Every structure is written in C-alpha cells, then in structure tokens.
Amino acid sequence: MTGTALDAATTELLAGSLRELLASVSAGGELGPALDALGWAEVLADDPATATTLLFTEHGRALVSSRALDDVLLAELDPALPPAAGSRALLYPHPAEGADPAPLDGPLWGVLLGPLHGVDEVVVPATAEGRTVLVTVAATDLAAAGGPATGFDLGSTWHTVAGPRPPGSGPPAPEAWTRAVAAGRRALAAEMIGVCESALTLATAHTTDRVQYGRPIASFQAVRHRLAEAYVAVTAARAVLDAAWTAAGGADGGGWAAAAAKLQAGRAQAQVMRHAVQVCGAMGLSQESELHRHVTRAAALDALLGGHMALAESAGAALLAGADVHPVVEL
Amino acid sequence: MSGEMDVFVAEVRRFLDANVTRQATSGTELEWGTGPDQIAYFSTDPPDVDAAKVAEARSWQRRRHEAGFGWITGPPEYGGRGLSTVHDLVYDGIEAEYEVPDTGVLSVIGLGMIGPTILAHAQGHIKDRYLPAMYSGEVIACQLFSEPGAGSDLASLATRAVRDGDGWVITGQKVWTSIAQHAHIGMALCRTDPDQPKHKGITAFLIDMSAPGVEVRPLRQMSGGADFNEVFLTDVRVPDDHRLGEVDDGWRVALTTLMNERATVGGEGAGPAARAVSLPFLTALLKANGRLEDAASRRRLAELVADLTATEYLNHQALRRMQAGRQPGPEASVSKLMYAQNLTRGAHFAAEIVGPRLIADTGEWGAYSWNELLLSTPALRILGGTEEIMKNILAERVLGLPKEPGIDTRSPFRELKRSGGTA
Amino acid sequence: MSETTTQSELDELRGSVREFLAAKSGEQQVRRLMESEGGYDDTVWRQMTEQLGLQSLALPTEHGGDGYGFVELRVVLEEMGRTLLPSPFLSTVVLAGSALMASGDAAAQAAHLPGIAGGKTTATLAVAEADGAWRTDGLATEAVRTDAGWRLRGEKCFVLDGATADLLLVVARTVAGPGLFAVTGDAGLTRTPLRTLDPTRRLARLTFTDTPAVPVGRTGSAGPIVDRVLDLATAALAAEQVGGARACLEASVAYARERVQFGRPIGSFQAVKHRCADMFTRVQLAASAAAEAANAIAGVEGAPPAGVAAAVAHVVCSEAFMFVAAENIQVHGGIGFTWEHPAHLYFRRAKSSQLLFGGPAVYHERLLDRMGV
Predict the structure, then answer these.
(1) Residues C19, C78: one domain?
(2) CA C92, C75, C1: angle at the middle one, nearest 5?
(3) What is the C-alpha to C-alpha distance for residues A146 and A137, in angstroms, rounded to an integer?
C-alpha cells in the first residue's frame, strides 16, 4: 500500500515547512494551493500514515480551521462516486448524530467545515433503507440552508446546514463511508493531539515564566504533576493513533482501531484542557489568553464523527452484543 | 439556644414577613422546557439590567439598614447593631428562606471585608464618612489587591505609592477586580518601601474610584461575560488621611480584610447554577434525553447527588453549631472545595448527556445553555484563592503539616525574583 | 432522650470508649484475633457490657437497655471503626437488635433483647443468599409449618458473624410472603465460616435442613422489617466507616510530618500535602453525612427523612473510607504495602464495608429510590 516511509529527518523538515505554511493559512492564505506547492500529494502517497498524522497534528497546533479533512474522507468516497464536476466538499453528519448520516427522506442536517466559495459540488451522505448512499448536490443548492455554526468554538469556520433536501439520490456506498469515517477519525485524533500539544506548550511556558513565592510555579508539585499527567494522556493517545494506522489496511479500513484512536484522543483533550486551565490559574480564564481557543477547538473536534463518550458507549454496546474484540495492536 | 436569640429570630421574621415574600418550596414541580433557558454562573446580564439589579440591591440594603439589620455586627456609633457574628449568620440563614434581591455586589466585598477593615484601621472622621454610607447601601467598595504579577503570592505586589506633600501618588495595575465598574471607593494595597522584605513595605489606602488616573477596563473571561476588571492606576493622588493603618504596615491591614472573607457556609446554594446542578433538574435532563434508565447515567447521578446532599448536611450542621453559639470550624473551606467540585462534576455530567448539542446550538431548551456554566467551572477552582492554596491552608493550619521550605520572606522586595520583572 | 444528651456528654462517652478500646483493641490484639477461630475476644465482649454498657446503650429500657438512641450509638460505632474492633457488635446490636425492634413482636423482644443488652447473647440477621443481595423477594430459603412447628430449608450466605451467633434471625419465604424467623438451636443447622477479605469481620454460610424456627412478627411482614433494618445498618456502618477513615487520615498526617526525604518532611511537598487535604475534605463530608443520618434516625428536629439520610451516608461514607484507605497507602509508600503495616487492614475493612450490603450498584440505586427518582 505504502511507498517509502518517511525518515525522521525528512519528517522533521516537513513539520517545519507545514508550520510555516499553516501560519500563512492562519493569516488568511489558502491551504490547498500551499500544500500543492509543497508537493504534498507525493508525500501523502509515499507514507500516508506519517503524512496525515503530521499534517493534522500541525493543523491542530496552529488552530487552523480549513476543509483539509474533506480531502481525507473524499479520498475514500471518490471511487464510489461519479466523476467530479469541479471541486468537491463534504457535508458531515451533524455532531449530534455522531457519524450516522441523516435519513434521505428527511431534511438536510449536518456541518460543513468551511464556506462554499470555490466549491462546485457537495457530497451529502444520507441513510436510505439502512444503508449509506452518497448524494452529490450542487453547491448553489446548499447555500440557502447553511449558516455559520453558532456555538462553542468561535474561531472555527464551520457552517451548520439545516433545511429542505434538494431532490435526488446517489449510489449506495456503505463500505466506502465506513472507510471514510475511519480515515476521518484518524485525522481528527491527530488534530486533537496537535491542539493538546500546543496547549501543553502554553501551560509549560506559563508555569515556567510565572513566579510566585520567588520561584516559577512549575517548581510546585501541584503544578508539575498536573502537567505530567497531561503529558501522559497525550502520549497514550499518540500511541493508540500509531497503532490505528497499522490496522488501516484492514477490510473495514481499520474502523475499530480508528474509533479507539479518536476515543483516546478525545479523552486526552478533556484531561489536558482541564489541567492546562488550572495551572494557568486566573490567566487561563481570560479571553485574552490563547488557552480558551484550545479548549473550545479541542471540544469541537472531539464532537465531530462521534465524541469520546459516544464512542466509548458504542464500543461497549458492541462488545456486550458479542462483537469480536479486534486488538488495536497485535502483540 | 438562648432566649435572647429567640427574640432576635422573631424580630428578623417580623421584618422579613412585612417586607418580602417567602420562597415557594423548591423543586418538586419542575417543568422541563419552560422558563428562561439560562444556566449561568456568572452574570450574563446586559449593562442596563445589571445596573437595575445594583439599584435594587442598594435599595434593599437601605431597608435592611433602616430596620436595624444593615450591619448586625457593627458598632452602634456607625449605624451597626452591636451583635455577634452568630446573629449575622442566623439572619442570613433566615433571609435565605425569602425572595430578596441579591445584594452580593455590596455585601461580599464592601460590607463583608472592607467595612471591618475601615473600622479597625481608619481614622475617626474617615469611619464617620464611609461606614454609615456603606452599610446603608449608598457607597459600594471594591478590593484592589491582585495584580498581574501577584496572584497566589499576594505579598509580591508591585503597585507603588510614593509620598508627595501631604498625600500620596499611586501608580500600578490591579486585576480580577470584581464590581470595580460599580464601586465608589477601592481599598488598594501598594508598595511603599521596596527595600524591606515583601510583607513589610506595603501600605493600604482607600482610593476614590472617580479620581483622575483611575481607569477601569472590563476583563472578558473565558465563559464570555465580563464580571471582572483590570484597574489601571496612573498617578492617582490620595490624601494621607485615606491611609489605612500605619505606613508599611499594610500587610497586617490586608490580613484583617482577608480574615473577614466570611465563611459563606450554606450561602452558595442559590442561583441558577445551583438550581441546575440539583436532583430535580438533572433528573429532568436525563428524562428529556431518554437516559433516565441508563445504568451509567444513573450511577453518576447518584454519586453526584450523594455529594451534593452531604455538602448540604455539612452546611446545615455548621449553621446549627453556630446557632448554638460555637465558632465556625474548617467546614467553610471544605464546603467551598466541595461546592466547586460538585458544580464542576454536575456541569460535565450534563455536558455528556447533551453531547454535541453543547458545542453547537441546535436551539433545543436545556442543551446549549449548559455551556456558560461549563466554561465557568474552571473559575470556581481558581478565583478567590486557588484550590491549591486552599489545600495548602487546610493541610498546614488544620492538619499541621509543615510549610513549603525555601520560600524567601527575608530578602528585600527589590531583590526578589518576580514575574513581569518590574519592582 | 437523645435530645437531652449534650455535646459534652457525647464527648465524654467518646472519651471513655476510646480509652477502653485503646487498651483492648490495639493493633496487636486485632492481629491476634484475626488469626483466632472465633474472630473476637469473649472477655472484651463481656467487658464492653460490664464496664461501659455498650450493648445496652441504645436498646429500650423495658428490655434491659439504657434507652439512648442513634446519636449516642454513632459515637460508639465510630470509635469501634477507628480501631477495627473485631466484634459481633454490628451483627448483634444493630442488625438483630433493630430487626427485633422493627418486628413489633413483644414476645420475641422480651425473649431475646435482655440477653443482647446484658452481653449474654450474640445474634445476627441472615437475609442474603448466594447472590449477596439484601432483598426479601425471590428467596430460595423457605419456612414451612409442620405439626411440630416451623422448619427452615435452604441456605443463607454472607451472614455477619453467622458462625458464632447464639441467635439467628433468618428471613425465609412462606406462603404468606417473606417472614422473619428465630433459630436458637443447632438442630438441622450447618454453619460454614467463609474465608474473608477482611479478617476482622467474619462471615458465614448457614445451611438449614428442617431447622426448627420460631416466627418473629407477623408472618409475611419481613419486607418492611428488612427495609428499616437496612436504614439503621447502613447508618451504623457509615459511623464505623467514618471512624476508620479518620484513623487513616491521622496515620497519613503523622507519617507525612515525620518521614523525611530529600532533606525535608514529605508533608512539605505539595503532592503529599494536597493529598492529605483531599483526604480531610472527604472525611469531613463523610462525618457530616453519618451525623445527619444518625440525627435523622433519632428523630432530631430539622433532620431529613431517615431513609434519605441513611442512603446518602451509605454512599458518601463508603466512597470516602475507600478513598482514604487507598490514599493512606500511597502516602506511606512502600512501607504501607507491607503485611506488618496496619494500612492494609483498613483497606480491607474499607472494601468489605463498601460491599457488605451490595456495593455501589446497589447503594446508588437505593439512594435514587429514596429520593424518588
């Protein structure tokens, strides 16, 4: 499946380029063309695991909001779709529904990761007779039903779509959708890990600089132990994500392992954010601090394609119903 | 319970019965989905509503004062009643049974902490000028203590006060100042001698908040509202008779203030946040979300309700003990830690139940509205003394564990390592 | 009665019980009894009656008791929990004593309570069967009326002090519903002591083979009796748990003050200091809950309903003792994990107490039930 794996030095170099590139995106640039200029398609083809994790970790670190995730899911969906008539975007199931597309015979209900300018058509997964079908809708037909998402994460470009569904159907593609969700969950796990790393960096810097009682507050155990626990949570999430990539070639696209990776990353973000806010003290409560943007972004990412609580519940329910235990790592 | 207390209780009831109505007995007939969809901890009121509430608070305080309950523990010459702290707590306990305006804007800081400090440390004519005005609701006071570089370690504050003729000139920055936008006066701690150890060179002043050079800027907190302020002091002139206590003896004055940070035993049970994190509301939430029969949810509900109820018991017992004339124990600290923990757990529990509807507003009642409380819970563990500092105090003062060694209390302030670097 | 017991009288009661237990239930004595067959010291049991009148304290005067109530009993139980006193007190006085009182059966009370009050009779209540549930429906053990009187058939499990109790009160199903029966002889009775996690608290299996038994209370009335007993028993257990938890907190604090690492007492490190503060917080909360439950049962003015307060105390004190017993080992480090150190005895007691009446799954549901959810 994969080409040459990226070595550590190349990965490091790429990470640096991505950081610069994402900084320019934060400042108003376009992500797609910038990635093309970097030759990202080749990097991705060579080593999808490292490349995807790298891109989304940096995406998370930079708190960028873009439609990069669309490419990940569409790469799995495209083979099941008619040829594209221009550039495509994806309508995600509304976070309230986890990863289950809305019924085809009901209204539209989902989120877009960004505004639709420059987009020609939108792939709208829907559920018909218990199966996922992929409906392709002209971007202009969705414009009326969409609006910026009001919610928790003020910095995101997400749009909520809710309104009457344009007529039409599309090919059934349950397997493709399952694979797309798995791929999306791996990318989202990486992105949450990036947000966590960045929050930890902020918290570490703050507690090292901040002096109370004549010493950096990071020298007090109550503070350092929280940071250590947060670090452990992120490391565990990263380990599960790496393992999930080894299962990605499997029949269901490594769905079980991808869900586990997203679950673990979702838990990690909850823990990291709790600790980071506490060690930053009153400073972390102010909107002037960068920290709250991490808190809200991480929570929003956790909710997309199934939050960690929902994933834990469905995994538990599946196990109790007699599902096979797919080990995430073969020992 | 003495006969004298019974007489007092009867008098309180007479006053309240004549002026306000009793609260409807709470809880049982909660109707899910009706009423304002608001679960806020901090105020989310627009400025005009906020101002109206302040006016209401001042007017209720004036009526209390006229009836002899404005300053129960204060000396009669300044409009006080000359009774004990226990009487004060008994009054609060009874008043909580009635529908009265929230007077927190006056009472928590001004009347609770700064009034007693003025009484203990100000000159006679300053007491005459401010105390009756404060306890009749006319003058609102705020506390100018915390600074960007001095949070938990308050004694490392850097705002300077320099003598200038018969007065002082004050320059510096204060932060996390509640109610500064409403306050007429502020009690400021300032550095007057940086060559002394940090606790020694501090002096306390009363500042006229309308004086030139005082600038109040709202500080927007992560939950979205702006309940706190930054206060910038630039060459603010203060007459010497507005000094509290001796020059360079301000730390002792500050301790008077902080010691009066009154045990709010049982006083935190009100407000929309506490109503939301309660058995009837959470049960309704579970029911509305089809989770009432779910074992995991039931278990978390039971764990939370057990702690909420036990915290209530703790508060009732503390109140009963005080009504029987005994001194408050460490219950107040325990109650405060538990209060923060309970609300935090409650908010996170609710967040799990409403799930993604917490992060995107679907317009559903009782779903997205949890986010203000959720985003406020970190503050409960930080503001007014971080959880870490509270635990230090419990461990050192109640359990007798040794202090953290190596904390410098001897070197001159000028030589201390500090955040921000300016001394 | 309890209303007239002043705080200083309660303090005095606590003082004398503490002094007595310091002499009779030190760590060495507890460890000796852990290894013994009966599991408790007969002499100490007698002295508890003769010197302090503990068995009779909360029993009614008409049956040889002193007529005090739960407020006073709580103080005694807290002290017993503090030293892990191995004793059939909980089974005899609380379980059996309350069951007899709740049965309203004057004849049974007259027959058995004076013996309990006088320290001559030990007793227990057998409700749970193989699944450990304290309930009165769906019981396998049955009572049948024969020409020679009532006979019991079946098996009871997890019976507190069941191997040694003189009087066994047994809940069994009858055609008229669950009933309470007294067994005083050994005919048709097999007692099997069980290995226990907590060697200071003995449990047994009882097998009944046409065992002669005498009904207590109206036949079919065991449901409400057991319900009432559970309120009292969980409130009593909560008091014991508070005592045990307090002992753990005190041990941790003492150790944190004296143990030096990195040149300073470990109690000066925030990780240890804050752990102790957390323990203190949980113990205070538990103490409040146990006190409120005792007040509620004693009918003190202004107290909440007994069922609610007992259920709250059962949850809060079970969790608090478990938490504090585990943290106590952490504060002690390696030494706390040794057999020689008493920390594990408290850990065992904390877990066995938490699970005695069913454990978290049961006590959480019980609380919700009592609160009307």
Answers:
(1) yes
(2) 85
(3) 13
Model confidence at B72: pLDDT above 80: yes
Question: What fold does the segment set B141-259 form as a domain?
Answer: Butyryl-CoA Dehydrogenase, subunit A; domain 2 (2.40.110)
Which residue in B has a C-alpha nearest to residue A288's C-alpha? B220
The proportion of chain A whose per-residue pLDDT surpasses 70, expressed as a percent, equals 94
**What CATH number is given for B32-135 in this structure?**
1.10.540.10
> How many Å apart are CA B313 and CA B321, to the nearest integer?
12
Helix or strand holding residue C211 (H, E) = strand C203-216
User: What is the domain range of residue C180?
Assistant: 123-220
The domain locations on chain B are 32-135, 141-259, 271-385
Q: Please check whether residue A197 is in contact with residue A61, taking contact to mean a CB–CB distance below 8 angstroms.
A: yes
User: What does CATH list as the number for B271-385?
Assistant: 1.20.140.10
**Alpha-carbon span B285 to B293, nearest angstrom:** 12
Q: In the structure encoding, which two tokens stand for residue B397, read together?
A: 């003062």
The answer to whether B27 touches B284, Cβ cutoff 8 Å, is no
Number of structural domains in chain C: 3
Residue C354 phi, psi (nearest 5): -60, -35
Q: Is position B215 annotated as part of the catalytic site?
A: no
**C366 and C248 within one domain:** yes
* C32 vs A: CB within 8 A: no
Asked whether the predicted pLDDT for residue A207 surpasses 60, the reply is: yes
pLDDT band at B28 (very low <50, low <70, confident <90, very high): very low
pLDDT in tens, A73-129: 999 999 999 998 889 999 999 888 889 999 999 999 899 998 888 899 999 999 999
Out of A134-148, C21-35, C146-160, C347-361, pick the least confident. A134-148
Residues B126-174: tens digit of each pLDDT: 999 999 999 999 999 999 999 998 988 899 999 999 999 999 999 999 9
Considering the domain architecture, whether residues C83 and C157 belong to the same structural domain is answered as no
CB crowding C121-152: b at 16 or more within 10 Å, else e: bbbbbbbbbeeebbbbeebebbbeeeeeebbb
CATH number at residue A187: 1.20.140.10
The 10s digit of each residue's pLDDT in C106-118 is 999 999 999 999 9
What ipTM is given for this predicted complex? Answer: 0.88
Distance from CA of C312 to the nearest CA of B (A): 5
Pairwise CB contact (< 8 Å): C289 & B313? yes
State the average pLDDT for chain B. Answer: 88
**Residue pairs spanning A and C at CB distance below 8 A:** 9
In this structure, what token pair is assigned to residue B322?
């005080």
Written as six digits, the tokens of C5 are 């017991």
Q: What is the pLDDT of residue A330?
A: 57
Contact A89, A139 (CB under 8 A): yes
A86 with A190, same domain: the answer is no
Q: Say yes or no for a CB contact (<8 Å) between A212 and B362.
A: no
Give the up-direction half-sphere exposure of residue A296: CA atoms within 13 A in the CB hemisphere: 27
Q: Do B313 and C264 touch (CB under 8 A)?
A: no
Which residue bears the tokens 């004190």?
C317
Contact C79, C18 (CB under 8 A): yes
| CA distances, A17 to each of A20, A22, A61, C367 (Å) | 5, 9, 14, 58
Residue A263 lies in a domain: yes
Same domain, C235 and C342: yes
**C262 lies in the same domain as C352:** yes
- Shared-domain flag, residues C9 and C46: yes
**DSSP for residue B31:** -
> What CATH number is given to the structural domain containing A99?
2.40.110
CB proximity C264 to B under 8 Å? yes
CA angle (B118, B121, B124) in 5-degree steps:
75
Confidence of residue B328 (pLDDT cuts 50, 70, 90): low
Amino acid at residue number B266? G
The domain containing residue A97 runs over which residues? 82-172
CB of C285 less than 8 A from some CB of B: yes
